[in-house]
Give the backbone structure.
Amino acid sequence: MAQRCLLLPGPGRTLVGALVPLLHRNASRKTGTCVLGKIRSDVTLSGNNTVLASVFAAYRCFASQPPKGFEKYFPGGKNSKKAEDSKGTSGELKDAKQNDKQQSGGGNSNSGGGNRKSGKGSGKKEDSTWWSRLQKGEIPWDDKEFRFYFMASAGFWAGITYYFFFRNSGREITWKDFVNNYLSKDVVDRLEVVNKRFVRVIFTPGKTPVNGQYVWFNIGSVDTFERNLETVQQELGIEAENRIPVVYAAESDGSFMLSMLPTVLIIGFLLYTLRRGPAGGRPGRGMGGLFSVGETTAKVLKDEIDVKFKDVAGCEEAKLEIMEFVNFLKNPKQYQDLGAKIPKGAILTGPPGTGKTLLAKATAGEANVPFITVNGSEFLEMFVGVGPARVRDLFVLARKNAPCILFIDEIDAVGRKRGRGNFGGQSEQENTLNQLLVEMDGFNTTTNVVVLAGTNRPDILDPALMRPGRFDRQIFIGPPDIKGRASIFKVHLRPLKLDSSIDKEGLARKLAALSPGFSGADIANVCNEAALIAARHLSDAINQNHFEQAIERVIGGLEKKTQVLQPEEKKTVAYHEAGHAVAGWFLEHADPLLKVSIIPRGKGLGYAQYLPKEQYLYTKEQLLDRMCMTLGGRVSEQIFFGRITTGAQDDLKKVTQSAYAQGRRMLG
């Protein structure tokens, strides 16, 4: 083996010579040390630092184990390996004994925290993949899959490098050079016709050129080459028995490999995908790889849930209603002893941004159980049968993680009413809904799995989905009132850095009065906008003025200070906004005016902010006063200018909508 290493060609010896200093840069003269990731190898070198020792050192750096049968040539080979194995085995036995003691002593407490432990373990496993470790700057050489890919890619690039940089490609000559410089001087031993494309000149022993390169020349066709060679030899007077022999050879060159490269890559990708199939799939969750299209895309959250009921505000009634589900999951025996059945699920309805998803997540956080979340649109794909397969896989996952909470957000995407046609995607949606109905109705009440769903369009859901036995309860979460908005503001004001002179309780009540009709998402947006405005102004803390600007930004839109109006237009807008203010001042049931401005915001050229009352019933007089105040700007333009501009079109639209609503609700 040493003789083979010493007989390497020139480029190979150059590559080994360049590799040795890198491997032993920090090594002493007699001991070489190479560190790669977690693999550390010490190789004893001879005094002359032979190529064989260098190759062994390189191999030890790029392999976790020595070749089979050569362990005795590597320091710390078999014996150290056995010692490490024995140490690891004894350590594992000790850990196993300690775990057995803890389990036997822990009893029910260990079973109660089982899901939480498995959640942490699964999270660590995901973070310890070779790809994530490689992104962190660590070289995961102890991973078998990484070593396979590394060695395969290293071999591929080594072949490419050798072919383009280290391969002896010879020197090309012409037919005339061959005849004048080589054939006429009697230094040619034979000619090799390679692949019927070019001729390689083989020199007589002892008459090889100084540079050692072989020479070659292209030929058009074999017949033409043979005729020309015979003619030249006759002209040179070479006798028939001394003429140059011609040998035909077939060799595989790099062009063939390059032409096959796309095919090899495609086949490799397919094999990789199929290899990742059964092995890459989750246990008991289908084939994986190409066969994973039917697996659910649901996310299982265990220890990541840090939302509690104290973080949910503005929907106290809905919170009390859903707190019972927490008690069901914590103390199911309390209800089963009385003959009661655990509710199978509840559907949360209400406008967008009112906290349906947040309330479901807080339920899982309080119950300290896994929270499985999935979107309704994720069931429907372009392949037929994927939706029902994902529904089945979703409920299998829920049963394995019981007790747990399964939350289907935007269930209207898959739970629409049936019977509106049976073509294309509509048929697939109905099949998915049918599978969902079967899975929910077939649930065993002792599995302790609660199904929650959220939607803001309950009117389009299928009646079979809404019946008791599937979704036993329908919880409506509406926009919060002034008290609810104040409590939501308190929640969102906690992480903000407020001015020391601000009272949080008073600020929350004032902001709640300034934001009628706001949902929880709107209030969170207001607090975030206030922080952004304070940062934009380079303030050390957030003050009340920042919150007022944020509310105006959310209600009216962005200020357009750069939009220049003509003086006549400014006067028209000022009289228009003043008409709203004066009309509201003299009307009995009009909302009090808070602020009026002619700075353009959003689509409008002016802006007026009111403080409407918190009420749910309106009389005819109140509605008429509101309509009069809305038309005050239009009347002001008619009185003072004798004309009406297009700036009042939004007012006309609001009045028309109010009039039609009164006709429908009051006149029947």
